[in-house]
Amino acid sequence: MSNSNHDDLCDPPIDSTTPRVEAVINEAMKRFPGVSNAAQARYYEAVHQELAPLARELERTCAEQSERITGLTEQHGRDSAELRRLCAARDEAKERVRALTAKCALLSALLDQAESERDSAIAAQKEKGNEWI
Fold it and tell me: What's the gap between Cα 25 and its chain centre?
């Protein structure tokens, strides 16, 4: 087996969700090859020295994003409550419009009936010869 094939087989799998961490580990493995205790100690120290600041940065970023998510969740709650309130007001207004439309239709029918009765009364008075109308 060639050395490059051996290296390919010995490389740890790369986690695509943590590219920065994987890059640090792979670079340290290349800089400190070997299996002796001294080589392993140098490798672990190098990885620790490079991963510690990265871990702190990621932890800060995580905390910031967590705060942002909390704020957005609270805003979503307020927006949802406002939307429910507005929908209820819309539904109430629709019901009032429906009721008013029904009342207007009734009033229009009553007005048409009153006008028809008035016209009939006027016509009857004119037939009787009462010109005062």
Answer: 37
Residue ranges of domains in the chain: 3-96
Cβ of 51: how many Cβ atoms within 10 Å? Answer: 16
Residue type, 13: P
* Mean pLDDT, residues 9-15 taken together: 56
Residue 100: how many CB atoms within 10 A of its CB? Answer: 10
**Do 133 and 125 form a contact (C-beta atoms < 8 A)?**
yes
Length of the chain: 133
Summarize pLDDT for 74-125 with one digit per residue, the tens: 999 999 999 999 999 999 999 999 999 999 999 999 999 999 999 999 888 8
Contacts of residue 46, defined as CB under 8 A and 6 or more positions apart, other chains included, come to 28, 31, 32
CA distance 36 to 28: 15
